[in-house]
Design goal:
about 80 residues, 4-stranded antiparallel β-sheet, alpha+beta, 4 strands, Alpha-Beta Plaits, 2 helices
Amino acid sequence: MSKVQVTISIDDAHLEQIDQVAEQLKASGLSVDQTMSTLGIVTGSVDSDKMSSLSEVAGVDSVEVDKTITLPPPGSDVQ
């Protein structure tokens, strides 16, 4: 099982309960890195086979896998 980094958006109706939603996400397998109450976002990592269970938590609007984008260094031929 590989861990994936995810960003979870909390729906508007549950913004005031974001800490409780984060606790439910932990119970579903998420290792929480950050809870951004003002933005309604929780970030963390989860085993790839447990990702679908995060969407089922009450208050979760969306679950997105973080992607890394690498750009070539300045001055390289590819720009």
